[in-house]
Specification:
Blueprint lengths: L8 H16 L5 E6 L4 E6 L7 H17 L12
Antiparallel strand pairs: 1-2
């Protein structure tokens, strides 16, 4: 059962697996997972500033530039079935 403020257990486990795997391969991860029902919001990452909005603003700026150059890979749900 999901407690208010926490994602479903499977999502929590997947986030933890992602963070472990990323650290193992020296990949930096920062993100959010959220849903409305039940209400939950999780900020996660393996870098010291993963909770800093400035990081996300900068990442969005970099991504926008790379999208214009065709250099960004966007993984959406249809790609991971």
């Amino acid at each position: 059962m999901t407690q208010r403020g926490n994602p479903p257990a499977e999502v929590q486990a997947a986030i933890e697996d992602l963070l472990r795997l990323a650290a193992q391969h020296k990949v930096v991860v920062a993100g959010f997972a959220f849903c409305a029902d039940p209400a939950s919001f999780v900020n996660f990452g393996n870098c010291s500033d993963s909770g800093d909005i400035a990081l996300y603003a900068e990442l969005c700026s970099i991504a926008d530039d790379k999208v214009r150059k065709g250099e960004v890979r966007n993984i959406n749900p249809g790609m991971v079935q």
